[in-house]
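Morning F.,

Quick status update on the modeling queue. The single chain you submitted on Monday has been processed. Sequence for confirmation:
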Amino acid sequence: MLFAAPGVAQTAFDSKHLVGEWVGQWKSGAGSSGNVYLTVETVDGDKVRGSLFIAVATPGQGYYNRDVPFFGVFDGTELAFMVPPSLVVSVRVSGDGMRGFVRGQQTNGTLELDRKN
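Structure tokens below.
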């Protein structure tokens, strides 16, 4: 998970604002990238449920190039979840944006999402 620098105050985010569609991109340090679509369907306390679509250039295996469900945790500033067998997503939520990382079989890099209007 991501952590704030010491001495930096974090403002809790209204978890109900998570519900909806988010779109953006993942980018690896090696230069590859792809589109990401995140739909948050429900938020109940710190539990979040939705679906994720990560586009990759090669034919998808498992959780790539298709909608996959996820169950995550939101602590007021950060949304984190894992999609089996090995995709990990952790993003800090601020306003209408999410920034963080994604790690999986064909993706390893940054993740930036914005609320879809």
